[in-house]
Design a protein that fits this description.
This protein is an alpha+beta fold and 256 residues long. It has 9 helices and 12 strands. Helix 8 crosses helix 9.
Length: 256
């Protein structure tokens, strides 16, 4: 098995491999095309066949795919002191030999194909803009401080134009939010959050439904990640038509 960096000469086999399963390789495709300067991809090759690959984004965020043998070989080439890493469950033992976990979760990728949607838009949504960034940051941090504690209103405002942000406002106050990124491969729903004082009213379901409606108006597939122990969120997404697709091991940690 050879471990080689993805370069122009290898792009034909890379794209052929990735396009066979876009939900599985979504961030490989997205970051290689749109964030190439901040992205490094290593391929594990067996006679010019891809057996696995590893993405390193901004020298901190890592995604690992492929066989256990490929994952082990790719991890040997990973020299980061700290990582945020997503991989298949069967790679967990190899990862934990190298990195001590400070945070770990089981994460589910859910997928919805065109024609499977069951939209439930019971509350009107509004398109959000940079003026809503402060309230968005507040809701995100309150909903999930572990993942979003470092989010700032400035960061959100700077990325506002690259994402489709929707929200629900009650008496003029933003109480529920969601965003999605639409690419040529599909729509990826990134953030769904509702302020704790306004939960269990169907707001998140309405936002997810509206985002799915907009995604499927242009594309054939919608994707969303959720922690496996977040039962209310899973129930809401299933209600709209999402189905579990893959389960991943997610961790943040430091090298032993």
């Amino acid at each position: 098995m050879k471990i080689v960096p993805l370069e122009q000469a290898l792009e034909p086999i890379f794209w052929k491999h990735v396009n066979q399963d876009i939900p599985y390789y979504y961030f490989f495709a997205f970051d290689w095309k749109y964030n190439r300067k901040e992205t490094k991809i290593l391929l594990a090759l067996e006679e010019n066949r891809i057996d696995g690959m590893m993405l390193v984004f901004r020298k901190s965020i890592v995604q690992l795919r492929g066989s256990c043998e490929a994952a082990k070989a790719l991890l040997e080439r990973l020299d980061l002191q700290k990582v945020e890493l997503q991989a298949l469950e069967q790679h967990k033992q190899h990862i934990l030999k190298k990195y001590k976990s400070t945070v770990s979760h089981e994460m589910i990728l859910m997928v919805l194909h065109e024609g499977e949607e069951r939209l439930q838009i019971k509350h009107p949504t509004v398109k959000l803009d940079a003026s809503d960034a402060g309230r968005i940051a507040t809701i995100m941090k309150q909903a999930d401080p572990e993942f979003w504690e470092t989010q700032t209103s400035q960061q959100i405002a700077e990325r506002m134009n690259s994402l489709n942000w929707l929200g629900i406002k009650i008496n003029g106050e933003l109480v529920s939010i969601g965003n999605a990124h639409l690419t040529e491969w599909g729509g990826h729903i990134g953030v769904i959050a509702t302020h704790e004082d306004h939960r269990n009213k169907g707001y998140a379901t309405s936002i997810v439904s509206e985002l799915v409606k907009q995604i499927l108006g242009r594309l054939s597939i919608a994707m969303i990640y959720v922690l496996s122990d977040n039962t209310p969120a899973i129930r809401a997404y299933e209600k709209v038509g999402f189905k579990p697709y893959r389960t991943y091991f997610f961790m943040r940690g430091e090298k032993h």
